[in-house]
Amino acid sequence: MSEIDDIDRRILSALQRDAGQSLDALGVQIGLSRNACWRRIRQMEGAGVITGRIATVDPAKLGLGLCVFMQVRTNAHTPDWLEKFSAATKAMPEIQGVYRMSGDLDYLIRARVADMAGYDRLYQRLISKVALSDVSASFVMEEIKETAQLPL
Length: 152
Known about the structure:
With 152 residues, this protein is of the alpha+beta class. 39% of the residues lie in helices and 18% in strands. It is built from five helices and four strands; from the N terminus they run αααβαββαβ.
């Protein structure tokens, strides 16, 4: 795929708002036929622009009301340690994001758990799988904005 044009951006914006809408409804919004929309979507999927489609779920209604950011520091900066850390965090469904950081912090982890006891269980599982020199946590008191939508 050579370049994303304005029509592709409008399709992506509409899909970010509601990926479950019908192709007919999408076509009406964009001003294209359903087949033209489908071809563009398939092209963007093939190019890796669209990487998946998900449903947005209310975590509190599923008993996962506590969002926690874990700040991780390590003394080990080897490929073997990173592979072990990556495997451990990817295998824990409570962990939603893991980011290697610049500055004093090595890694930032974003996780969803039911409560403090759930966080403690996550913490205990993580430190049993990989050696960490320091872990501190910050708990979200209020979610002011949470989105997966990219600005197009």
